[in-house]
Write a structure and sequence with these properties.
Radius of gyration: 18 Å
Distance between the termini: 52 Å
Mean pLDDT: 89
Number of domains: 2
Low-confidence stretches: none
Structural class: mainly alpha
Number of helices: 11
Oligomer: single chain
């Protein structure tokens, strides 16, 4: 029963997140869709923000696994162009699931402000760990601090908020060039 409720909360939160966004998704909306009492919701999550963040992380991890599989296939054949292409696909996949839209509307910032600091810190550490895994997977020399590289990729991710201001017609190529610059740093 608990597993079923959690699964339903995740499904409905994912639907509401993509349909209504963070601001307009409410606990009342979620409990109505899942057909549980409000008190039951709070047995699973302290807040709607923690549930929505878990949904975002789940979507992120699905894409991450696909990308890591493609990166693993590069072993022994890694070039700046190939690794850039794989990482660019990651950013495009994130865009397709609507996460950039949440960033662009400022909703993700609203979510981050309401999350406990340790939740965000764990997420940032995960980014750094992913960079470390990629470096090890491809047997790349650790000439650059992976925490700095993780922060650089996070910075790039956050900069997508300004897609319109950069000029949407230039954004794709600008993103590719920036990723390539980071890849060149990784390859040493």
């Amino acid at each position: 029963e608990r597993a079923h409720i959690k699964k339903r909360l995740m499904e409905e939160a994912a639907y509401c997140l993509s349909t209504f966004g963070i601001r307009r998704t409410t606990v009342d909306m979620l409990i109505e869709r899942v057909k549980i009492p409000k008190g039951t919701f709070y047995l699973f999550y302290e807040s709607k923000e923690l549930l929505l963040f878990e949904v975002i992380i789940q979507q992120h991890e699905i894409i991450e696994k696909q990308i890591l599989g493609k990166i693993k296939a590069l072993r022994g054949h890694v070039t700046a162009d190939r690794l850039t292409g794989v990482l660019l696909k990651f950013f495009k996949s994130v865009d397709e699931i609507g996460l950039f839209r949440l960033i662009g509307t400022g909703e993700i910032e609203l979510l981050y402000r309401k999350l406990p600091h340790e939740v965000m810190q764990n997420h940032f550490n995960h980014d750094t760990d992913m960079i470390s895994r990629i470096m090890k997977m491809l047997s790349l020399p650790a000439k650059i601090n992976t925490a700095h590289l993780g922060a650089a990729f996070r910075n790039l991710f956050i900069s997508t908020v300004y897609k319109r201001e950069m000029g949407e017609e230039y954004f794709g190529e600008a993103l590719r060039l920036t990723i390539r610059g980071l890849v060149l740093q990784m390859l040493g």
